C-alpha cells in the first residue's frame, strides 16, 4: 500500500496545470488538515510520538491472535493447502478460486510501500525496525483471518452469479447489534465513502503518478523522451486503456491478471534481492544480527527500544492493511461453501506482504547500502530531511551489484503500481454500488470515471488530496475493527464448526474425495 509516502511530481506540472493543482490542493488543505489531525493524532510516551490509529490496529491484532489461539501459526499449513487449490470446489458459489482471491488481495497491498516505505523505516529506526515490522505482520495475520471470514460469511449473492461482500455487508450486521436506529447504515456509508475517497486518490492517482515517474526516471528523467510536454498525458491514456481492459470484466478478469502478475512480480523482486544478498553473502549473518540487536538495543534511534518498535509497527500497519477491511472485499468473491476457508487463505497476505517482501527489502538495504541508510538516519535525526527518499535507498542497494539493476526495480514498481490500480478499482466499485446502487449503468459509469482518474494521476499531483485520502483509509480501520469485535463470537463459532467438520472427515482434499456418479 502507498499510504504515508511522499508523492513524486512529474515534469508536466507547469503553467496552467500547476495553477489547477494549486487551486484544488488549496481547497482540500483545510479539510485534509482537519481529518488528518484527528486520525493521525499522536500518542506520546516521553519523547516518542506515534499515531493512535497504529496502536488501534496493533491492539486489535493482539486481541485476535490471543482470542483465536494463534490461528496464524496453527492454521498456516492448512492455509497453504487451501491456497494451492487442494480443497477447491468449482461448484461452490462465488466467482474466483482461493488462489485468485489471494493474489487479487495481495496485489492491492504489495506496492511502493514495500520498497520505499521499508527503506524509510530502516533509515529512521535502523535495522531493528525490521524485527518489529515482522512481529506486527505476524500479528496482523490474525486480523486478516477474522475480517475475511466475515467477508464471505455475510456476502450477498446476486442472480447473475456475482457477489458483494466484505465490510459493506458484515459491518451492517455488527452494528445492528448495538440496537441504535440508523447507526448501521450511517457507519457503513462512512466506511464506503472512505474507501471510495482513498481508492480514487491513493489507490488510483498516486499509483498512476508513480508509474509514470519511474518510467520517466529510467528513460532519462526530464531530458529523456518522457520528459517532453504532453508525454504524461499520452502515458496516462495508455495506462488507463490497459486498466480499463482489465477492470471492465469485473473480479474474474482482475483475478485472472493478478493470479499471473502477482507471482511473477514477487518472484522478480525477490530474485533481485537474493542476487544482491548473494553478492554480499558474508555480510548477511551480520545483517540479521543487527536486526535482532537493533530491536532491543538500538543505537542512534530516537526513543530507544520504544522508538524503533513504533517505527516497525507503523510501517507494517501502513503496508499490509490488516484491520482496514479492504482485502475482505476481494476475498468475499471466492468460490467456497465454508467462510472460514477464506479466512485461512487471507492470513497468508501479511506473511507475503510484510514478512517476506518487506523483510527482503530491509535486509537488502542493510547488507548492500549500510552507509546510505546510516547517512539518511543521521540526516533525519538532525532534522535535515523531512522524509528519507526510500526509492533512492533501495535503488542504491540494487546498483551496488549490477549498475542496471535499478531498471529491474523500476519495472517492479510499475508492476506493483499497476496491480494495485486494478485491484483498488474493484474495492472502490463495491463502495460506489453500496452508495449509489448496483445497476449495469452505474457500474459502467464508475469504471469510466476510474480510468479518467488514472489519466489525471499521471498529469497532476495533489499532495493535500492524497493526505486526505490516507486519513480516510484509516477511518476504515476505526469502523472496521469495532465491527470485528462485535462479531467475535460468530467467527469463533464458525471456526469451531469448520474444525469439527474436518475432524469428522466431512471436509477433505480433492484427492481424497470419493468419485461421484
Automatic annotation (TrEMBL):
Segments traversing the membrane: 50-71, 186-206, 226-249, 261-279, 404-427, 448-465, 471-488
Membrane topology, record value: Multi-pass membrane protein
Primary location: membrane
Cell compartment(s), UniProt: Cell membrane
Top-level taxon: Bacteria
Keyword S-adenosyl-L-methionine set for record: no
Keyword line: Cell membrane, Membrane, Symport, Transmembrane, Transmembrane helix, Transport
InterPro entries: Na/Ala_symport (IPR001463)
Family listed: Belongs to the alanine or glycine:cation symporter (AGCS) (TC 2.A.25) family.
NCBIfam families, A to Z: agcS (TIGR00835)
The name this protein goes by in its record: Alanine/glycine:cation symporter family protein
Organism: Aquipuribacter nitratireducens
Amino acid at each position: 500500500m502507498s499510504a504515508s509516502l511522499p508523492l513524486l511530481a512529474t515534469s508536466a506540472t507547469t503553467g496552467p496545470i500547476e495553477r489547477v493543482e494549486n487551486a484544488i490542493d488549496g481547497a482540500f488543505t483545510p479539510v485534509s488538515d482537519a481529518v488528518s489531525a484527528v486520525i493521525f493524532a499522536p500518542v506520546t510516551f516521553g519523547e516518542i510520538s506515534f499515531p493512535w490509529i497504529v496502536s488501534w490496529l496493533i491492539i486489535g491484532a493482539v486481541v485476535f491472535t490471543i482470542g483465536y489461539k494463534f490461528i496464524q501459526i496453527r492454521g498456516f499449513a492448512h492455509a497453504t493447502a487451501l491456497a494451492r487449490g487442494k480443497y477447491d470446489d468449482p461448484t461452490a458459489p462465488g466467482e474466483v478460486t482461493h488462489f485468485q482471491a489471494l493474489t487479487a488481495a495481495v496485489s492491492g497491498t504489495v506496492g511502493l510501500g514495500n520498497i520505499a516505505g521499508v527503506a524509510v523505516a530502516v533509515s529512521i529506526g535502523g535495522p531493528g525496525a525490521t524485527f518489529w515490522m515482522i512481529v506486527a505482520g505476524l500479528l496482523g495475520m490474525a486480523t486478516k483471518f477474522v475480517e475475511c471470514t466475515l467477508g464471505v460469511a455475510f456476502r450477498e449473492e446476486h442472480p447473475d452469479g456475482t457477489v458483494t461482500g466484505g465490510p459493506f455487508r458484515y459491518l451492517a450486521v455488527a452494528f445492528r447489534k448495538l440496537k441504535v436506529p440508523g447507526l448501521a447504515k450511517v457507519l457503513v456509508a462512512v466506511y464506503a465513502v472512505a474507501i471510495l475517497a482513498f481508492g480514487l486518490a491513493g489507490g488510483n492517482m498516486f499509483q498512476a503518478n508513480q508509474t509514470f515517474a519511474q518510467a520517466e526516471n529510467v528513460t532519462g528523467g526530464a531530458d529523456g523522451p518522457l520528459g517532453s510536454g504532453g508525454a504524461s498525458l499520452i502515458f496516462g491514456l495508455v495506462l488507463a486503456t490497459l486498466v480499463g481492459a482489465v477492470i471492465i470484466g469485473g473480479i474474474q478478469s482482475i483475478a485472472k491478471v493478478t493470479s499471473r502478475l502477482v507471482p511473477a512480480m514477487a518472484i522478480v523482486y525477490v530474485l533481485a534481492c537474493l542476487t544482491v544478498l548473494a553478492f554480499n553473502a558474508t555480510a548477511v549473518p551480520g545483517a540479521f544480527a543487527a536486526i535482532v540487536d537493533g530491536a532491543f538495543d538500538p543505537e542512534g534511534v530516537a526513543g530507544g527500544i520504544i522508538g524503533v518498535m513504533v517505527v516497525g509497527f507503523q510501517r507494517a500497519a501502513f503496508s499490509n492493511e490488516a484491520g482496514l477491511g479492504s482485502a475482505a472485499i476481494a476475498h468475499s468473491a471466492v468460490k467456497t461453501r465454508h467462510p472460514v476457508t477464506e479466512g485461512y487463505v487471507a492470513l497468508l497476505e501479511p506473511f507475503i506482504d510484510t514478512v517476506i517482501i518487506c523483510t527482503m527489502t530491509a535486509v537488502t538495504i542493510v547488507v548492500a547500502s549500510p552507509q546510505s541508510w546510516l547517512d539518511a538516519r543521521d540526516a533525519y535525526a538532525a532534522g535535515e530531511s523531512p522524509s528519507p527518499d526510500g526509492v533512492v535507498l533501495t535503488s542504491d542497494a540494487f546498483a551496488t551489484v549490477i549498475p542496471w539493476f535499478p531498471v529491474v526495480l523500476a519495472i517492479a514498481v510499475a508492476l506493483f503500481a499497476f496491480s494495485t490500480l486494478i485491484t483498488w478499482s474493484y474495492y472502490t466499485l463495491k463502495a460506489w454500488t453500496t452508495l449509489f446502487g448496483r445497476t449495469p449503468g452505474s457500474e459502467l459509469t464508475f469504471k469510466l470515471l476510474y480510468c479518467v482518474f488514472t489519466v489525471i494521476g499521471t498529469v497532476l499531483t495533489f499532495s493535500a488530496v492524497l493526505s486526505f485520502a490516507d486519513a480516510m483509509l484509516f477511518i476504515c480501520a476505526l469502523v472496521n475493527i469495532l465491527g470485528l469485535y462485535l462479531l467475535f463470537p460468530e467467527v469463533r463459532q464458525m471456526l469451531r464448526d469448520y474444525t469439527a467438520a474436518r475432524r469428522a472427515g466431512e471436509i477433505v482434499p480433492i484427492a481424497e474425495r470419493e468419485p461421484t456418479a
